[in-house]
Specification:
Elements: H1 2-21, E1 29-35, E2 47-54, E3 59-67, H2 75-81, E4 85-92, H3 93-102, E5 107-112, H4 116-129, E6 136-138, H5 146-157, H6 175-179, H7 187-196, H8 214-223, E7 225-226, E8 230-231, E9 233-239, H9 257-270, H10 275-301, H11 332-350, H12 364-381
Antiparallel strand pairs: 1-2, 1-5, 2-3, 3-4, 4-6, 5-9, 7-8
Helix pairs in contact: 4-5, 9-12, 11-12
Length: 382
């Protein structure tokens, strides 16, 4: 009896919820909000959200799949392990607009060409996704983020009978290359991303893969037609009307990773002139290289990040350096280790241009130094 009553109560709540979801009038509209890139790392690639506006029922909300909680337990550990939970947040449109304008980020609003039934369907899907048991999801940079969630939601709205127009996309571009335009003013971020992204990031992007970036969602929505001739986007306007100017970037010496690494490698070569200086430099050099290798190894083997798997950078930044960086004695085993390291690094340099993973150019001076240091140790031990 208790089971029957519980089932009836659940059914009643479901019906009540369904009735409460279908609140939009025929005057309602749904818009894609595309926000320009921000200055923080998490906002550097822009942002996508959906706005639901109904002047009759006075609904004016933004559904934002790109929120996360810094206070969630083990935040940084979960981020590194690829287990960080992102959430669908619902806020008033005015708050959304004020927050972005306060951060000097302009917005584009594309009003979608949806029928009243389609508006109600997407609203129902959003309301269902916003429930406490549904709102959290495990974030994946390339394949499950604020932009791809909107792409998939629209496909559900059209019962997967929509074909996105990809005719304006440049073919043969990799996932890594799609990031490059956003990193022109952040050379060290660009270097760091190339260091930690693995072979998977060099896969050729399919048409829908482009839509992990908000700008491409914007452009593809603008080009797409439903039923073969009906534009998906009814109208578009910018907030504010004149786009905010992008700050100029004038790189100095420290903003050029390749030249900084050349200078670092030069210091390493000069340190060989003095045994004490060389010992200090080598200890620091192999320690930093080993730590870099450890990070790469953990992101490869100990996380759920799909983009950091099979990272060939680890073959010149070996985590095993941490076992030997502090050793001053030149045992035969240690010398064999560093000779092997030099040979492996030399092979990486020889095949640098042909390796299927795009390795960071700024790392080349460091890899050259690995070769020289490994051979120099053998020569000194001879």
């Amino acid at each position: 009896m208790r089971f029957i009553l519980s089932a009836l109560f659940t059914l009643f709540c479901s019906l009540l919820s369904a009735q409460n979801v279908a609140l939009l009038s025929d005057s309602a509209r749904v818009s894609l909000m595309t926000v320009s890139p921000g200055s923080e790392l998490y906002s550097i690639f822009g942002h996508s959200a959906l706005r639901v506006y109904d002047p009759v029922t006075r609904i004016n909300r933004v559904y934002n799949y790109g929120t996360f909680d810094f206070d969630q337990p083990n935040f940084y550990l979960n981020f590194c392990r690829g287990k960080l939970l992102y959430s669908l947040d619902v806020e008033s449109y005015r708050n959304f607009e004020f927050g972005n304008l306060h951060d000097h980020r302009w917005m584009s609003e594309q009003v979608l060409n949806l029928s009243p039934a389609q508006c109600n369907r997407i609203f129902e899907l959003l309301q269902t996704n916003a429930l406490p048991e549904n709102r959290d999801y495990k974030y994946d940079f390339f394949y499950d983020n604020c932009a791809t969630r909107i792409r998939d939601l629209l496909k559900e709205t059209f019962y997967h009978q929509i074909s996105f127009d990809s005719s304006g996309l440049k073919p043969g571009v990799t996932m890594r290359q799609l990031l490059k335009p956003y990193l022109q003013n952040s050379p060290w971020t660009d270097f760091g991303i190339d260091l930690i992204l693995g072979w998977a990031a060099d896969r050729k992007a399919r048409a829908e893969d482009y839509m992990f970036l908000p700008d491409h969602v914007h452009d593809i929505f603008a080009a797409t037609k439903t039923d073969g001739h009906v534009p998906l986007v009814r109208s578009e306007h910018f907030i504010p009307e004149n786009k905010m100017p992008t700050p100029g970037f004038h790189p100095g010496f420290l903003d050029r990773p390749f030249w900084v690494m050349c200078f670092f490698a030069l210091l390493g070569l000069l340190s060989m002139a003095n045994p004490r200086t060389e010992r200090i430099f080598d200890t620091l050099f192999w320690l930093l290289l080993g730590l870099a290798g450890l990070v790469i190894a953990l992101l490869w083997f100990a996380t759920d990040h799909s983009a950091t798997k099979t990272n060939l950078n680890m073959f010149w930044a070996l985590p095993t350096h941490l076992l030997f960086f502090w050793r001053r004695n030149r045992s035969e085993f240690v010398e064999h280790y560093f000779t092997g390291t030099a040979i492996l690094a030399a092979l990486m340099l020889i095949f640098w241009a042909w390796i299927p993973q795009a390795l960071p150019v700024a790392a080349i001076p460091v890899v050259v130094l690995v070769v020289v240091k490994g051979i120099w140790r053998r020569r000194g031990a001879a």
